[in-house]
Specification:
This protein has helices at about 45-65, 85-100, 110-115, 165-175, 180-190, 225-235, 240-270, 285-300, 315-320; strands spanning about 1-5, 10-20, 25-30, 75-80, 105-110, 135-140, 145-150, 155-160, 275-280, 300-305, 325-330. By secondary structure, the chain is of the alpha/beta class. The strands form 2 sheets. The chain has a 6-stranded mixed beta sheet, with helices on both faces. Helix 3 (about 110-115) crosses helix 9 (about 315-320) and helix 7 runs parallel beside helix 8. Mean pLDDT is about 95; it is low at about 345-360. Bound molecules: 5'-O-[(R)-(carboxyoxy)(hydroxy)phosphoryl]adenosine (KG4) and zinc ion.
Length: about 350
């Protein structure tokens, strides 16, 4: 299966052609720099930019793939979760492209696509050999842990009850006057420093009711972390660039520690021997090092996405459809974009949610 993928869930406009779920023939990603002065993504600007750029980006991806439109077997696009107005652009374009070419259409869940991104690395083992596995999707919009026990199942284990890990880093950077997006700056400033223990809380969820039936020990709460940084800065104002860099290191360690501990708990409670990590925050050098150390200790195989596939990209979307995941046409044509499309089978039925992982 050679699949054209389309991704417009947030501020990346992306198209890619992927063969058999893993072989990336082309992947074009445009990251919208226009949001930087606003310190966050402005949905209306993002969707207008998708409208302007997507047709050209799709043509580029097909051309760069070297195979042409005639060689395509399907069109896949992110249907959710994400920003409603951004999703609408890519999803409508994909419907149009599938209708025009007569190709099947796949509706793909964005979070599950992040979990698949690790297999776009040619050095990764085949996905069918990596069960059961724990998956961590960690980005500016999402922080969720899943168990993937078999090819056709994705079971949510935990998630953030408020801010995503990337959001926590972005907000901290804003507070420290370091610009947007904050994750890469914090990563750079923290490098080579030793974190001071006990300054920031580890992201524990105080109200188990907020976890909607998921295990609170596998969920995170990062909003308190941001507040504790605010209090710390008010009582101990940083006096130098060195002080700011040290705070970045301490804060990053709290976020990374929370993520690593939850992965360890998920691995030990499920007995999974593989851990797959995707999403923009998985670029973080400290998180990568801490997970490597932890997996080596536990005898677990760590699967990390290649840096170019950590952030939002269409290759992961085409790749996931290529292994048969998503809602396939004709049912897909009846679907609207779904900004809060749940990934996996909810353990407790949540009102108005749909199961994201449906076998095609
Ligand atoms: O996956 P992504 O490109 O977009 C979504 O949010 O879906 O992730 C963006 C997030 C931002 O919060 C950004 O600060 C964070 O990923 N990020 C990082 C690093 N690079 C990007 N966080 C920590 N360390 C990094 N090196
Ligand atoms: Zn994402």
């Amino acid at each position: 299966m050679t699949i054209l993928g389309i991704e417009t869930s947030c501020d990346e406009t992306s198209a890619a052609v992927v063969r058999d779920g893993r072989e990336v023939l082309s992947c074009v990603v445009h990251t919208q720099a226009q949001h930087v002065p606003f310190g966050g993504v402005v949905p209306e600007l993002a969707s207008r930019c998708h409208v302007r750029l997507l047709p050209g980006i799709v043509e580029q991806a097909v051309e760069q793939s070297g195979v042409g439109w005639d060689a395509l077997d399907a069109v896949a696009a992110t249907r959710g979760p994400g920003l409603a107005s951004s999703l609408l652009v890519g999803w409508s374009f994909a419907k149009g492209a599938a209708l025009r070419t007569g190709l099947p259409l796949f509706a793909v869940n964005h979070i599950e696509a992040h979990l698949h991104s690790v297999f776009l690395d040619p050095a990764a083992p085949p996905p069918q050999e990596c069960f059961p596995r724990v998956g961590l999707a960690v980005s500016g919009g999402h922080t969720s842990i899943f168990l993937l026990p078999a090819p056709d199942r994705v079971i949510p284990l935990g998630r953030t009850v408020d801010d995503a890990a990337g959001e926590a880093l972005d907000k901290a950077a804003k507070l420290l006057g370091l610009g947007y997006p904050g994750g890469p700056v914090i990563d750079r400033l923290a490098r080579g420093r030793t974190p001071r223990a006990g300054i920031f809380p580890e992201g524990t969820v105080r109200d188990a009711g907020a976890c909607a039936g998921l295990d609170p020990a596998l969920c995170t709460s990062f909003s308190g972390l941001k507040t504790s940084l605010l209090h710390f800065v008010q009582t101990h104002p940083p006096r130098s660039e060195n002080d700011v860099a040290q705070l970045c290191c301490d804060y990053q360690e709290a976020v990374v520690g929370a993520l690593v501990r939850r992965c360890e708990r998920a691995l030990s409670s499920t007995g999974a021997r593989f851990l797959a990590v995707g999403g923009g925050v998985s670029l973080n050098s400290r998180l990568r090092a801490a997970l490597s150390e932890s997996c080596a200790r536990l005898g677990v195989r760590l699967l990390l996405a290649l840096p170019r596939h950590c952030g939002d990209n269409a290759a992961m979307v085409a790749g996931l459809a290529g292994i048969g995941r998503g809602v396939r046409s004709p049912a897909a044509f009846d679907l609207d974009p779904s900004p809060s499309w749940t990934c996996g089978e909810p353990t407790a039925p949540a009102a108005n949610s749909e199961t994201g992982a449906i076998r095609a």
